[in-house]
Design a protein that fits this description.
Strand order of the largest sheet: 4-6-7-10-11
Largest sheet: 5 strands, parallel
Strand content: 5-15%
Helix content: 25-40%
Length: about 475
């Protein structure tokens, strides 16, 4: 079970000869998954070479969907949402956040391309066996699991990196006849958007980077320490809030006590399975605690629950926190394609780690500890590296209009990451949401600012005063919600 948590936490160069392909679209419906509401779209499949350089034979199939603009005479350049993860499909992401794109859809199509290895584009995934590990991390068993995963993958995992994926997006653009694209990339998707703009500046009209991953930063070592900072800030806000501190006195001390106890001795709890509702036994230790807490810190609405869940666990009621862990695991298993996820991290991040600059003491002291970083290094010790462009790790230099979005409470891509990415952007603006987490597109007036930016292609002209009034969920004092 710990391996399952670690793998999911752990919560590119070629010219193409097939850019002249045509792509036929037919009526379809798209959704975020079984049981989720669906919407009308036009869908098609584009066949792409597994290796665009032609050295390795094989083909992959890309799932493409276009959600038509509301305007009957739309502008010719679509908006392209690029999902995060890495490992989430664009169609699943968009259908989960479609309301945030309605303003920009008034005048432009929404072009959705499940990145190769995700969603319905030759998905690269591995089943995770909870029975393989019980109770503790093991480098040997993680490597064993990774080798089993590699044996089950349907395609050579080397060709699922960002450098290859951007050639697919350019091929789709050409096949559909769009003159240029307006890119929106969230989290890992911001890395894809930056690299597409680098490789294909003539095909890029505007870029929005939300929860920015700067090219020069290798993700991994700072995940634990940045998440710890975010949790510290959330608990400090509770301690400074009169109602929250009265309801949950000493919440910071409760958190530290829980962490120490779970580090030394995991417990077994009974929690309902999110899919069936049937109670199941869960070995709940530091790894499970970290999964539950980390995802709570991503969004202001879930941040509001954190003190309550920690307090309940401090009184011996682990069911709410254990249920959060189970729901997170189910959601991440459904959302992320682990094979594609590993292909990216093991080519673009882990090989570039500067171990002399890693804050090992801070990682060890964090609630996540070194387990995630150790797991990533174990996975990447056997995972084959794929193609990566020569300038991939260099900040993007461009005068293309760029809007960067950050939350000052983001537990994984803090605002300073956006500043790192913007160092050579000559036509860019950075907006920061107060007390906001990872991803700003659905926060307050951001959707209107997004649409205004894309329409005008002018970051400097945005009136962003409305961001100061963005709603932040008050802390839950009990399970009925915040106080009135």
């Amino acid at each position: 079970m710990v391996r399952n948590a670690l793998v999911l936490m752990a919560g590119l160069l070629f010219a193409s000869s097939s850019l002249a392909q045509s792509l036929e679209l037919t009526d379809c419906r798209i959704s975020a998954g079984p049981g989720a509401p669906s919407m009308k779209a036009r869908c098609g499949k584009l066949i792409r070479p597994l290796d665009p350089a032609g050295a390795v034979p094989g083909e992959v199939e890309l799932k493409v969907a276009v959600v038509p603009a509301l305007n009957l005479t739309p502008d010719p350049d679509p908006v392209v949402p690029i999902a995060g993860g890495p490992g989430q499909g664009a169609i699943q992401f968009y259908t989960s956040y479609s309301r945030a794109f309605e303003d920009v859809r008034r005048n432009r199509d929404i072009l959705l391309v499940d990145q190769r290895g995700t969603g319905e584009s030759s998905r690269m995934d591995c089943p995770v066996d909870d029975d393989l590990v019980e109770g503790q991390y093991s480098t040997e068993l993680t490597i064993e699991y990774t080798n089993e995963c590699l044996e089950q993958l349907p395609f050579d995992p080397r060709f699922f990196t960002t450098s290859v994926a951007v050639t697919d997006l350019e091929a789709v653009r050409a096949a559909l006849g769009y003159p240029s694209l307006n890119l929106y990339g969230v989290s890992y998707g911001s890395r894809v958007a930056q690299h597409f703009a680098r490789r294909y500046p003539g095909s890029t009209r505007t870029v929005v980077l939300d929860g920015v991953a700067p090219p020069q930063e290798s993700l991994g070592p700072e995940i634990a320490t940045e998440s710890q900072k975010a949790v510290n800030n959330i608990l400090a806000r509770c301690a400074e809030d009169a109602a929250c501190s009265e309801r949950f006195p000493g919440i910071q001390e409760t958190f530290a006590k829980l962490l120490a106890e779970l580090k030394s001795s995991p417990i077994v709890i009974r929690v309902p399975d999110p899919s069936t509702g049937r109670p199941e036994s869960v070995a709940f230790g530091q790894g499970e605690f970290a999964v539950a807490i980390r995802l709570l810190a991503y969004h202001p609405n879930s941040m509001a629950l954190m003190p309550l869940l920690i307090h309940e666990a401090g009184t011996g009621n682990y069911v709410p926190l254990g249920s959060q862990y189970k729901m997170t695991m189910v959601a991440m298993n459904d959302m992320l394609a682990i094979g594609m996820h590993n292909a990216v991290l093991c080519t673009e991040d882990i090989p570039f780690l500067d171990k002399t600059s890693i804050d090992y003491e801070g990682i060890e002291a964090s609630y996540m500890g070194p387990l995630q970083l150790n797991a990533l290094e174990a996975i990447c010790s056997v995972w084959p590296e794929g193609p990566i462009d020569e300038e991939f790790k260099v900040p993007l230099t461009t005068d293309i209009p760029v809007l960067l979005l950050s939350g000052d409470a983001d537990p994984i891509t803090p605002p300073r990451y956006a500043e790192m990415a913007a160092v050579d952007l000559s036509n860019a603006r950075h907006l920061v949401g107060r007390h906001q987490g990872h991803g700003q597109i659905a926060v307050g007036c951001t959707r209107r600012l997004f649409a205004a930016f894309v329409d005008a292609a002018d970051p400097a002209g945005l009136d962003a005063e409305c961001l100061e009034r963005s709603f932040v969920m008050p802390f839950f004092l009990d399970f009925s919600g915040p106080s009135p």
